[in-house]
Amino acid sequence: MWHTSLEERAVKLTSESERNALIAFLEKQGLALDGDVEYSMVITDFGKIIATGSFAGRVLKCIAVDEEYKGLGLSEKVFTHLTNEQFRRGRTHLFVFTKPQNKQIFSDLGLSLIAEVPSKVVLMENRTDGIRKYLDELAAESGEIIPSAAVVVNCNPFTLGHRYLLEYAAARCQKLHVFVVWEDKSSFPTEVRYRLVKEGTADLPNVIVHRGRDYIISDATFPTYFIKHYEDVVETHARLDVTIFLQYIAQRLAIQKRFVGEEPYCAVTSEYNKVMAEMLPAAGIELEIVPRKTAGGAAISASRVRELLRSGDLAAVRALVPETTYRFLVSEDAGEIIEKLRSSASRH
Fold first, then answer.
1. Which residues pair with 179 in a beta bridge?
2. 186 class by beta-carbon count within 10 Å (0-12 exposed, 13-18 middle, 19+ buried)
């Protein structure tokens, strides 16, 4: 029976009381409010929250319905509300990360499954041809499909360390596919990072640089709200990303090997490399971990370059980046990026 007392409204996330009420409701459902949420809504019954949903970017998340109110179509109402708000903001291609047991609910709402990590997470999208269109884009950029290798990079910005990894990999395969992670949470915007990788590898004839789009999963999009332990978050994130790579990208582009840079300092990347070392060979794809290029006894890193840009030490930056990156960094186009770097405490 439908309750006439039900109300649907947006949550004022800047209000401590409204935010705390939402957090308390999610906790009852065994969920947390992801820190990157930009919009949330609730359905209430006489003021009591009985259903909710949120989104960050194009990812719908933190969707939950009180056990006592299941069977009233509230999941559909939450989904419709969030979708309408996303469309109002000009976002039409949407994604949902959720528990596998919720897969049927979202399938009934018209979403298509992309990939699943059993008992951990499913990724779905509101298009039936989203991943296929991306694969078509990759194939069109690639030309002849021949046995090849792959590297996934962020390049925030592109350094001599990245150049060394890509040059090393390109010398050991017929064709090298380079995927630039396509999230906009880095200091250097996506298109700038992509451009710097393209310019920095223009002399390597067998390198194809691709936009990672929505299917090279990044830390920016991966959810934590339904995964309890940080270690599980990292491992599940890696397994989902590798699953998508294996099921779709590697098959379409005949990728037989993947190169990754060694990461002695970052526990997240170390765990990611461990998952790849398990999953890739099991699927017939070789993995090679390449030692980092060093300068002055330390590994060259994009984080070091960003530190030097913050302090204004362009001479030290020049020793760590290709000429193409340096030319960009001293151009007017980089002014706003460097200014934001200097005023931000973000690690990225």
1. 152, 210
2. buried
Residue 252 to residue 50: CA distance in whole angstroms = 44
Q: Is 198 exposed, middle or buried (0-12, 13-18, 19+ CB in 10 A)?
A: middle
Torsion 322-324-329-330 (CA) sign: positive
Q: What is the pLDDT of residue 298?
A: 86
Count Cα atoms within 13 angstroms, Cβ side, for 94: 24
Check: CATH 3.20.20.80 for 131-293? no
Could you check whether 6-125 and 131-293 share the same CATH topology? no
Predicted TM-score of the model (pTM): 0.92
- DSSP codes, 139-197: HHHH-S--SEEEEEE--SS--HHHHHHHHHHHTTSS-EEEEE---S-SSS-HHHHHHHH
Sorted by sequence, the CB contacts under 8 Å of residue 219 that are 6+ apart come out as 183, 185, 237, 268
Tokens found for residue 223: 């959810």
- With contact defined as beta carbons under 8 Å apart, do 17 and 86 qualify? no
Q: How far apart are CA 84 and CA 71, in angstroms?
A: 22
- What is 6-125's CATH topology? Aminopeptidase (3.40.630)
**Does the CA dihedral 239-244-249-254 come out positive or negative?**
positive
Q: What is the CA radius of gyration of the chain?
A: 22
pLDDT: is 244 or 221 the higher one? 244
Q: Based on DSSP, count helices (H) and strands (E) in the chain, helices before strands.
A: 13, 14
Query: Measured at the alpha carbon of residue 59, what is the angle toward residues 54 and 61, in degrees to the nearest 5?
Result: 40
Q: Which are the contacts of 207, defined by CB distance < 8 A and separation ≥ 6?
A: 166, 170, 176, 178, 201
Cis peptide preceding 157, ω within 30 of 0: yes
Q: Which two structure tokens, joined as six digits, stand for 156?
A: 């925030």
Q: Give the CA distances from residue 302 to residues 1, 159, 161, 310, in Å, rounded to whole numbers and listed in that order.
A: 58, 6, 8, 12
CA distances from 237 to 36, 44, 131, 327 (A): 16, 33, 18, 35
Query: What tokens were used for 159?
Result: 């350094």
- Domain residue limits, the chain: 6-125, 131-293
For 285-290, what is the mean pLDDT? 96
| Tens-digit pLDDT profile for residues 40-59 | 999 999 999 999 999 999 99
